[in-house]
Specification:
The protein is α/β, with parallel strands linked by helices. It has nine helices and 16 strands. It folds into two domains: about 1-125 and about 310-335, Medium-chain alcohol dehydrogenases, catalytic domain (Quinone Oxidoreductase, Chain A, domain 1, Alpha-Beta Complex), CATH 3.90.180.10; about 130-270, NAD(P)-binding Rossmann-like Domain (Rossmann fold, 3-Layer(aba) Sandwich), CATH 3.40.50.720.
Length: about 350
């Protein structure tokens, strides 16, 4: 059986092609499966940067490129050795914005629980980025955790840090995001450009200070704030890309009064092991982490709908991008519907 579909390709800034694709189930290898996409989620930081032509994160050609990496799909065909996957299962993968795909069973991240909607499960990996930043930062119950930047990654970090027993200090220049952060569990909310900010934090955090900072921002001003927050021997867990579109800063980004005098630990937190390996060797892997987060969603402890600003049909992706760029109605992220 041949399944026709579409795949989205960014050929240059602001230029998206909808390419026709075909998947032939007769060509599936024994350890492969075929799935049709139900929903994909937009990762705003990554996708908008590519869409508007921001400097690439690493050397090499920037275009053409696929878009997206959060895909919720339904299995429609399996090879003879596809493990515990069967037609009708709903799965999460890192496939891009496309309507149908063929993949090896090892590349499936997780099955979606029966009581979880695909349109909500699809943002689980965006939640995972905040989860991983907290894990790598060594979060413990009772920690004072600051989160800078309240997009989908930052808000995901806020709700999880609260869930795991931390006191959460949230930072944004948008009042509506600060209100949402408090609704999601933040104990304190601060305007980043507010007057007397350092005194307020010192008063609120007490003698303990800030144990862990999670920063999701790309701006140098937010990096300077991140450096100023942690206590001695504190940690900054970095999900953003400081200075990506701003050139060189007007200050030392490793200023000794912060980095050296406070003996700070800086951790890049965008990566988690994806090995198929025993837990005795590596406990926290992408698949185990994602299964855990899906269990929290299944149990009603995490409500992904709070971070989804709306649903567009896949062929309206540029309208969704436009809203995210303009900030119209202050969107967090959008989900794309494929059928």
């Amino acid at each position: 059986m041949i399944i026709d579909g579409y795949s989205l390709l960014l050929i240059a800034p602001y230029e998206i092609e909808f390419n026709k694709i075909k998947v032939d189930t007769e060509e599936v290898l024994p350890d492969e499966l075929v799935a049709v996409t139900e929903y994909t989620a937009i990762s705003p930081g990554t996708e908008i940067a590519a869409y508007v032509g921001a400097p690439p994160l690493r050397p090499g050609p920037a275009y053409p490129r696929l878009l997206g990496y959060c895909n919720a799909a339904k299995v429609v065909h399996t090879g003879d050795n596809a493990g515990n996957f069967k037609p009708g299962d709903r799965i999460l993968t890192f496939e891009s914005h496309k309507s149908v795909f063929r993949t090896a069973k090892e590349k499936v991240i997780a099955k979606i629980p029966k009581n979880v909607e695909s349109g909500e499960a699809v943002i689980t990996y965006l939640l995972h980025l905040g989860y991983n930043a907290l894990l790598r930062g060594g979060i413990k119950p009772g920690y004072n955790v600051a989160v800078i930047g309240l997009g989908v990654l930052g808000l995901g970090a806020v709700l999880q840090a609260d869930l795991y027993g931390a006191n959460v200090y949230s930072f944004s220049n948008y009042e509506d995001r600060l209100i949402l952060a408090k609704n999601l569990g933040a104990k304190f909310a601060y305007l980043k450009n507010g007057t007397g900010l350092e005194d307020k934090i010192r008063q609120d955090a007490g003698e303990t200070g800030i144990d862990l900072v999670v920063t999701t921002s790309n701006s140098w001003s937010d990096w300077k704030l991140a450096l100023s927050l942690p206590r001695v021997n504190g940690t900054i867990s970095v999900l953003g890309f400081p200075g990506r579109t701003e050139g060189l800063p007007d200050f030392n980004p490793l200023d000794s009064q912060y980095f050296y005098d406070r003996q700070l630990t800086l951790i890049a937190s965008g990566y988690a092991p994806d090995y198929l390996i025993d837990s005795k060797d590596i406990r926290f892997t992408i698949k185990r982490n994602m299964e855990f987060l899906l269990s929290l969603i299944s149990d009603g402890k995490i409500l992904p709908g709070n971070l989804i600003s709306g649903v567009f049909d896949f062929n309206e992706i540029e309208k969704a991008y436009g809203n995210l760029i303009s900030g119209k109605e202050s969107p967090i992220t959008y989900v794309l519907r494929w059928f």
